[in-house]
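Ticket #4471: complex job returned nothing on first submit. Input attached below:
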Amino acid sequence: MSATTFAWLVLAFPLAGTIIIGLGFRRWPGQVAAWIATGAIFLSFLAAVATLIKLQGLTPIHRQLTSSLWDYAVTVGINARMSILVDPLSVFMILVVSGVSTLIHLYSISYMRSDRGINRYFAYLNFFVFSMLLLVLAANFLLLIVGWAFVGAASYLLISFWYRRKTATQAGIKAFVINVVGDVGLVLGTFFIFKHTHTLDFLGSFAAARHGAFGAGTNNGDLVAGCVLLLVGAFAKSAQIPLHTWLPDAMEGPTPVSALIHAATMVTAGVYLIARMHPLFERAPAAQDVGAVIGVLTLFIAGTIGLVVTDIKRVIAYSTMSQIGYMIMAVSVGAYSAGLFHLMTHAFFKALLFMAAGSIIGAMGGEQSLNKMGGFRKALPFTYACFIIGGLALSAIPPFSGFWSKDDILLMVGERGGWHWALYGLAYVGALFTGIYTFRMIFRAFHGEPVPEARELIEHGHLYHPEHPFNPNDGELEDTDVGFPGPEHVIAEREPQMKIAMGLLAIGAIFLGFLQIPRVTSVIDNFLAPSFTDSRLYNLHTQTANLDVGLLLSTVIGLLGIFIAYMVWIRHPGSSAKFQARFGAIYQLLSHKWYFDEAIDILVLRPGAWTGRFAQQTFERVVVNGTIVDGTTGIVRAGSAAVRSLQSGFLRYYVALLVLGAAGVAFYFLLQT
Amino acid sequence: MNIGWYLAVSAIIFTLGAVGVMTRRNPLVVLLCLEMMLNGGNLALIAFSRMLGNGDGQIFAIIVITVAACEVCIGLGMVVAIFRRSLPIDVDELTELQG
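Support reply: We reran it on our side without changes. The output follows.
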């Protein structure tokens, strides 16, 4: 079997899983559906590995295969096919997506055990994986848009999974609406590109761009517009400023969903998109600059917000935004392999952090606020170890994976020179924040005085269960019928499936960085190279002048962040309150998340609502109803009343009119002659 | 003889019929006046036929007479129906078809 056959199988297994679970979702007993779903994704992962092996068997210049199942519409100027593109980039993505998804499915089996919606959950989750794989395997813009919209829909379904929580449904709607803004950008951008390349195929479009569809030089107006609109799509999906506000709210979903969709896979779709479209972006440096600037702003702003957020999942969510900012910046400055490398390592350590957070939330009985946590180190030793590994990888401490990938990005950004040095500097500031907020979270949750929930676990060996389950976000009582916090909570220490999933991710978080160590190995670089043969920027980082300085600086900054966190939250507890009092204005700014929600409210929502009210109360009532509709009926009524009065029923009167008319006609003709 | 005389007689008969239809209220008389109007027309047709020397006008006149017979048939039938239902025999009273 060829590589493309295996790639089709990669798509087929999750789809089959969705359909099988979906068809019988009322009937599957216990965890059967969960195991079916996990098995489907695992088979998909095996098929992805097989694709990789087959692809590596080919010579590098032939590692771009397309395969088409059928044609939707093929005519002059349009070629809509059900076709996939198998090249190192897409294989890289399907490996990450299916691999991490398998582990998260495994984790979910335990985590969602007591939820009555478990079958629905796994149907959604398989659907999401299918959509994501479709997105990364698509060989033309059409399928890309389909996959793009599908993952948005799956994300919506999973965020509002506990649909009786009002906060969850609102968060789902918010995510969906913002993602649709991105979808519109993607579709419009596609039009701009299609207008010149006359094909929907990726490879065809790139070839057309190479042969001058957008003129000989760079920064053709339509191309820049198209690329910026593609970036809008990428920003919405990848939670970049200013379309990021949905991601922290998306933490309303079950924790494994946050791990899978809102950390490891879906939110990296924007990174993939820019990397995939690199032949277009490299001809539009203006659009690349937009991406780089937005990326660096996001990583900085999200990092600062992460310093003050108290919801443990939201801290990780802001850290996700920040890390994706690094990736977006990387792929926008041409550091494709570095960005994708960070995508992979981030998928591992961020999924690990979310899973560990899920475990501690389980121990807290659904509570997510850091203010109420503390001293869980002894109660949850395994979770603590995972948190430390994930945290060290996230803070980029050698030799953990995040160090190598983040340093790769920073090195490449510095290598570009010019004004990119500003990005370089801000990215290091962001790296400092990363260390601080990560270890702030760890120190606050695991160190210090054990809270009653932790003590109950240590001393009595049983999990804390709140008497009345409540929504941690607004304190409302929960309906446990729909699930979590549900009748049961779980912690990783007691669930083998969770332990296996987290253990494997932890191993990945430690060792994956060794795939690409400067001067030693360059597996990712070499593997991805065939996808980027036509890139001017791909093989830029051969110079190593800044390499040692960069590595040293990264290490020092990462350690410095941890040291600051240690000083503030362990050594001098209470000093954070002093900082809050001292820098009240900054604290206000950060705790209001830089007022993005408020700004969007004022700039978009209120004018929108005002326009709607105007249209409904003034325009519709006065103009449409009052003038157009009532006016028309008035005219018809008056006319028919006039005609009706002629129908008197008096025969002689009719005859008189008839005679008069006939006489009138006769006179007319007489006068004519 | 000049055709003008024939047409004058025809016009007089037609006008008398029309005035009768407009002024009389008894349906029977209205029907009679209608017949006068039709026959005024017939007279003009036949006069022209003679003047031009072919039979087309006469054929028209015969067709008009046929139509008149049909119309009288229906009209008298309605008069009988009105009488049987003991409705007023007066066209001004029969105004049920007003709008």
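Chain B touches chain A through 14 residues (CB under 8 Å). Closing as resolved unless it happens again.
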